[in-house]
Amino acid sequence: MASLGNHIRQWKHNRTFLTMIPLDYRDWIITIAFYSALHAIDALLAFDKVRGITSHQARNDVLMRTNRYQRIYKAYHPLYSLSRTIRYLADPQAWISAEDTQPRVIDAYLVPIEQSVERLIGQDLQLGKLRITAASPKC
Amino acid sequence: MTRTRAQRAPIRISESHDAERSVVLQSDDDDVFVRTGKQVIAACRLGISLDLWLQELHAMLGDVQRWAADRGAQIRTCYCAPRGGRVALFFAPASSTVDFTLADELAELSVNLLQRYNVGSTEVQQVPWDELDRFLDPQAARHVHGEPWQPHPTVEA
Question: CB-based contact (8 Å) between A71 and chain B?
């Protein structure tokens, strides 16, 4: 089982990349936002010494069944579902608008998960604000 | 054919006495099944478990149907299909983009279903109507609520 520190490192690694992805690539923004949340949650589970989380379903079950994680689950489930859907779509940009991505996904789901995890593990990780890049790279 | 008195009497298999005893069952088409008494009892238990599970599943889907009907303006269709070892519920919103209000409500629904029904793991997912068949086979899945999914006309032509 990976340590709390390893999960925090990967969480920060993913969220750094998240800020570099242009808004035109919303499928990847959602996917990386989800994996940022996943490592934040796994950091919490490592802190709480919850073992045996070897699948998404096992993680979901623990979050659903544990009162301590209820607030996290309410933000995590929509992000999990959205990422499971958008990564398979032939036209992912049509499923979520550019205008909704920052307020309805990053601010409404990922940021509350991160804040809850920081509170529950008793650490201020100095994460900094998450702002999605508006412009596309020029090829 | 007249059955003898002995044939009318029930055949008793006791788990404590007949666990290792061979039981031979013969079907009308002459298939012969040889099982131990223990296996016969286990199969009966499994049959009862399956019946109970199906009752739970039907009750759950009835609840999901009512839940979706209460949100008829938001939900265009809902299907249920097996996914791995889980029961998966797919909701297509009325909108062509993800419905965030529905997404939050689906999170609550998933917790309620877990608490109220003993059907194992249940997964709830919002998917676009246009690409519903990317996630399930609508012909094989159970239609729970709303408009039955149809292939896009250009695909059929």
Answer: no
